[in-house]
Amino acid sequence: MTGRHDRGSHAATRAPELRRRVAVEAARLMTEGGLRDYRQAKLKAAERLGIFDELSLPKNSEIEEALREHQRLFRGDDQTRTLRRLREVAREAMRFFSDHEPRLVGAVLEGTADAHSAVCLHLYSDQPNNVIAHLREHGIPYEEQTRRLRVDRASARDFPVLLFSADDAAIDITLLPYDLLRQAPLDRISEKPMQRASLGALEILLESR
Predict the structure, then answer these.
(1) CA-CA distance, 57 to 19, in Å (whole number)?
(2) Which domain of life is it from (predicted)?
């Protein structure tokens, strides 16, 4: 007869395998289906696989690792070209917003960007309307939203977001006050300060690839 301890041990042994399966499927959905939200992707992946145990849901870091692996295996040169094109778009956008200390963040910087990815920038200004005026002066249509970011482990704040398109790429700008320039908001995956790149750092990255 199988005891409760044996059943528990079996479940514990299967959990990493199930998390891996969900992570791989979530990565596929993000790459091929255009899903951007890690939680949405892993819940949809788990549903497709018939896995409903919370312990079998992967961490965001596990999905990110599976995403990189999927891109290496199935995208190859296409992903490399797409990433470079988006980084070049980011460079032009950062030059356009050079007065506002632009920083590149997200998948385009980290190297996991695909054809569905937006170029995500943080701009720093104590007068957000100046950024909006800059877009209007150049006749660039945009959409306004808000985004909640964790500024530290104890607090989160809402910040203005501007969305528009340039060179067939989506541009996603978060407007932050100057006092946050020294300390990046926390990454939603690692809960550490976000990886950021200045225009100079991005240009070095483009030259090295």
Answers:
(1) 5
(2) Bacteria
CA distance 160 to 173: 8
Cβ contacts of 180 within 8 Å, gap of 6 or more: 124, 151
Tens of pLDDT along 108-141?
998 888 888 899 999 999 999 999 999 999 999 9
**Whether residue 68 sits in one domain with residue 41:** yes
> Could you give the CA distance from residue 172 to residue 42 in angstroms, rounded to a whole number?
23
As a dihedral over the C-alpha atoms of residue 15, residue 20, residue 26, residue 31, rounded to 10 degrees, the angle is: 180
Query: Vertex 108, ends 143 and 49: CA angle to 5°?
Result: 90
Same domain for 85 and 63, yes or no, is: no
**Residue 127 one-letter amino acid:** Q
- 114 in the same domain as 177: yes
pTM: 0.71
3-state SS of the chain: helix, strand, coil percent to 5? 55, 20, 25
The domain boundary, picked from 18, 51, 74, lies at 74
Q: Kindly report, residue by residue over 40-84, the tens digit of the pLDDT.
A: 888 888 888 888 887 788 887 788 788 777 777 666 567 788 899
Contact 174, 159 (CB under 8 A): yes
Q: Which pLDDT score is estimated for 75?
A: 61
